[in-house]
């Protein structure tokens, strides 16, 4: 099983961890961050009561009457998410996002020892600089790194080396394989496949009939240890979006033009960080009265990821529109292309 190690870094209970950064007195209390009537993120003390993301708040309170409910700090979540990915990129350019708080990192060519050292340093810096816990898994493939980060939670580091990997390729329950949903699990169970080892007794044609050709082949690669070990940096994406609200979270109200500049800088920063530039920008205005958002569009002849070049365009866009009282706005940078292609076209 040759190959360099990958990292999977995953911030623990991300929304809750961000909300607790300024509420240290709640660190040991059961806390849930909520969005509307649903739990968006539950702290680990709350999870001990069976509370989890996606659960109705009413149900969560039945499980734990002392549950502390906090609003989602949208703006802070975006700020910390951006800072987390900036940190990832300080370790390597090969960063493949999974969500706002998790990513695969390829720190090779390096030894396992060096990869573990990188994981430790990443965790240390996330705690010291961002005040959030990040669990990191180290493994030879994406699946193994993902399984390792699951085993590391909460706030830990776990390594799946060659010996543990070899054992997992036989003993791992199908339901625990990353990317296999409940529907596929049920179909495999009907074939008597409970663990990866059980795949050996299933004819390939029969497996493809039950699970589809793509999934059947992926399962075969996982069993053999030839599954995906390539981290794909974010070079192909349709758009980036940032949003903010006019008030909340212990800060004064802010005018739309200030929010517009803030969101513009965020989307441009995200694009530049991964070497992309955009030619289309959309502003979504969210009225205070709850009516349907208004959408404003602008384009430029040459794609760019520089906020200072976009700013006169989008500010004029807002000034031409008689905006009502707003609760917030969002900015989407689209028409993305590799920035180096734009530069090449200028010469």
Describe this structure in words.
This protein is α+β, with helices and mostly antiparallel strands and 347 residues long. It has four domains: 6-11 and 75-164, Alpha-Beta Plaits (2-Layer Sandwich); 14-72, MutS, DNA mismatch repair protein, domain I, CATH 3.40.1170; 173-224; 239-345, Dna Ligase, domain 1. It has helices at 14-20, 44-47, 57-63, 74-91, 112-130, 142-152, 162-171, 182-190, 204-211, 213-224, 256-273, 307-320, 339-345, and strands at residues 6-11, 31-35, 38-42, 68-71, 95-99, 102-106, 134-139, 157-159, 239-245, 276-287, 294-304, 326-334, 337-338. It has a five-stranded mixed sheet with strand order 5-6-1-7-8. Helix 4 (74-91) packs antiparallel against helix 5 (112-130) and helix 9 (204-211) crosses helix 10 (213-224). The radius of gyration is 23 Å and the shape is globular.
Q: Give the strand order of the largest sheet, numbering strands 1, 2, ... along the chain.
A: 5-6-1-7-8
Per CATH, the class of the largest domain reads Alpha Beta
Strand content: 15-25%
Arithmetic mean pLDDT: 89
In CATH, the topology of the largest domain is named Dna Ligase, domain 1
